[in-house]
Design goal:
Two copies of one chain form a homodimer.
Chain A: H1 15-25, E1 31-35, H2 42-55, E2 60-64, H3 65-68, H4 80-99, E3 103-107, H5 113-123, E4 128-133, H6 137-143, H7 148-153, E5 175-177, H8 184-199
Parallel strand pairs in A: 1-3, 1-4, 2-3, 4-5
């Protein structure tokens, strides 16, 4: 029988466990929180970043705001309350991955300063890297890959960020990728320049030259 | 500017990406779903398993039903509906980890056949390993590490599994650990005998001799 003294709940994912996991993965776990308007290129860059990191031997996980709405966050809508809850869960899951040593790549409109502050608070300041995927509303609406802006203008989608609700640009993002004026290749290169020194054990002392514009 | 043709949402975590991640981790990702009564030793074994795997170079993540109630599942209670939603989210998160190549160790009472069937359905049959952490109600209540059985008997905790609601034992678990009659060391050894051949690349052909009793 399990002796009672040993049957005490040990906190899983303590600091030490995380460091051991980062050590076997040979990487620092961080959350790359990519915010920006619908159509700015967040999902594209998230998936590309995941693949680019994988090809360099880093382990990351994409948590896409749209994708998790079909799974973890099924049943949540786009009201202010539901958006808040959607974001809260995404932040909690990103934190679980980071505690496991895995780099979390979050792709999430997360339109308000307040919502991103909450995410940062859940995840922890040291692990939270805010990346502003910046394309103007005009550019995003002209692209309108998913036809969402058209529907929003026609009143078929309520509470659409950029149309009915403001996108509050980050005041001091850790990085800013100007996807309105760069190709995917240029964007991913700039993103990698930002991310790699922050996750690599060996590059720690040679921080990227990249600064948000 | 991101050309429109490249800005198509690529499914993150496709089968190929998962296999590449498993390859760099040198492991098969699976969900070890540990069910059983409160006090049977699930959390203890989950944490020990996580550490034992880590010491062998495997990457796993504990998802503890009790722990996530303070984070991801904050606000959910113990009504039938809330338990269902709690379990659903845990299964979705376990699936995210498996898609990232990471072994998920779930510690969760998950008392009904129906609830575990739902978890299996979300996660996928091939990735779902049901492990019954089996100690009798008498044993668990005699231990009562957290004092929960006492409170449940006094009517201070409603809907307590084993007291007010039945625990439906798995009919055909993939493994069964009889923690009512074994030490922690014996239990973890048996658990490892079950788990290691199923996650290891090299041991794939030499499946464990262990059979559930």
């Amino acid at each position: 029988m399990l002796p009672e003294t040993q049957n005490i709940s040990i906190p899983a994912n303590g600091r030490e466990t995380r460091l051991s996991k980062e050590a076997i993965l040979n990487q620092h776990a961080r959350v790359i929180w990519m915010c920006g308007l619908s159509g700015a290129g967040k999902s594209t860059l998230a998936t590309r970043l995941d693949n680019e990191l994988l090809s360099r031997g880093y382990l990351s996980q994409v948590i896409d705001g749209d994708v998790v709405r079909g799974g973890l966050n099924k049943g949540l809508g786009f009201s202010s309350e539901d958006r808040h809850e959607n974001l809260r869960r995404v932040a909690e899951v990103a934190k679980l991955f980071v505690n496991c040593g895995v780099i979390s790549i979050v792709s999430f409109i997360s339109p308000t300063l307040h919502s991103r502050a909450m995410a940062k608070n859940i995840i922890g300041e040291q692990d939270f890297l805010e990346v502003y995927i910046n394309a103007s509303l005009d550019v995003c609406e002209a692209r309108d890959i998913k036809g969402l802006y058209k529907q929003a203008r026609e009143g078929k989608i309520p509470d659409f960020t950029g149309i009915h609700q403001p996108f509050e640009a980050p005041e001091h993002p850790d990085a800013e990728i100007a996807t309105g004026s760069m190709t995917v290749e240029e964007s991913i290169r700039q993103l990698l320049d930002f991310v790699l020194p922050r996750i690599s054990f060996k590059d720690q002392h040679e921080q990227s030259q990249y600064k948000p514009s």
